[in-house]
Amino acid sequence: MAKSDLLRKEDWLAVWIGFIVIAIGCVAVLTGWFDFSAMKFSTWTWGENLNEKQLAKVVPLGTQLASKAFWVKTLRTFLVLGVLFTIGIKLQGEKVSKFIKAFVVLFVIALIVRMVSAEFTLNRYLEWAFWALLIGLLISNTVGTPEWLKPAIKTEFYIKTGLVIMGFSVLFSNIAKFGLYGLGIAWIVTPIVIIFMWWFGTKMLKMDNKPLVITLASATSVCGTSAAIATGAAAKAKKEDLSLAISISIIFTILMMVFEPMIIRWAGMNQLMGGALIGGTVDSTGAVVLAGNALGPEAEQAAVLVKSIQNILIGFIAFFVAIFFATKVDKDPTRKVGAGEIWNRFPKFIIGFFVASLIASFIIMPLTSGAEVKAINGVLDQYKNWAFVLAFTSIGLDTNFKSLIKQMQGGKVLWLYIVGQLFNIALTLFAVWFLLSGVVFKVPVLDMFK
Fold this sequence. Notes:
Layout: H1 5-8, H2 10-31, H3 52-55, H4 61-65, H5 68-91, H6 96-117, H7 120-125, H8 128-140, H9 155-167, H10 173-204, H11 210-221, H12 225-235, H13 239-267, H14 271-281, H15 285-295, H16 297-311, H17 313-329, H18 339-345, H19 349-367, H20 370-397, H21 401-407, H22 412-436
Helix pairs in contact: 2-5, 2-9, 2-19, 2-20, 5-6, 6-8, 6-20, 8-20, 9-19, 9-20, 10-11, 10-14, 10-16, 10-22, 11-12, 11-13, 11-22, 12-13, 12-17, 13-15, 14-15, 14-16, 14-22, 15-16, 17-18
């Protein structure tokens, strides 16, 4: 690896930007010297048709916009992300002036996305990722995305950075909290589902676009967008394949987030089992929280623990996909595939994800309190969300419905997801029953969830 790669390649730059944000966030929280929190809209509503408990959580939009603190945080968020990504663009050899002009407008669109998604009713059923994608799609498929805005559409750069920051919240201590129960649900089921979807897509559906198959399989079995980005990079999936996989994942995540808790409640499943099932099958981490909460506090905690343990697999899966595609799928018979080829294919930002997770789990956590780690993650989570909002908005702005329809390959992509997700639900349900029903193993002590 050339030394210049560390300061010129997008993957490595995403790692450095992520580490800078993590480092500043840790210093800000642990020392209390300055405020580093990013802008976040509080919940607001168009009308007043809410009960007293709901109204207590609402802050009028006008009050928020009139607040000096709001604009200070907005400016801070814009400057932190704007400066860091501009430096990244400069180091990659692109024109800074064009990027800055476009980034200002992209940030404003992202600000509108955050505002819309914070509305009480909209926020209750659909998280910001959906609205970012929708608003971007509306622009690109109506008036069209102007050429001068395209220099800021850096989908993978934003989301890779967000994944590195996200790594700090993926604590290995979560494995200890749920022990073998979580490992059985999250780590055994996931690779089986990926292998099944790979077989079904390539052998039964005869899909030639193998990077799309593995990207959609990872999105279905792990955690939607995050896994899709990591695996897509390892398999060298095209940007259009990534957009398609993410779009399908988001649409079905919304449906599962709404209907899965209803079905679980109708089936009479207890909160512990229901939450674990949600954690293992609903793609998005945010949707997992909402769906788990719909069942109850115990279900929410079980769902989050299973999903957190599952999220740790992101890096491992990307690593093995890189090896598999380099040695089997894209193998050149004229030359031997060595460690160098695998290294070149491996998404380097996953290293940042792992390192961030290790630092949080084995350095920051032992040296501080759980409350301080939670406070740090509270700050970092917003910067991660902002990076993801920029990414999802970029996906929408860069996606055309006509091209998406062409990529559906006569419905094969949709069938791959539906059959794969049904298999995922069935296998996860069996694992949940086997481990948590009390028939085979002792049910975990509920104190762990308090």
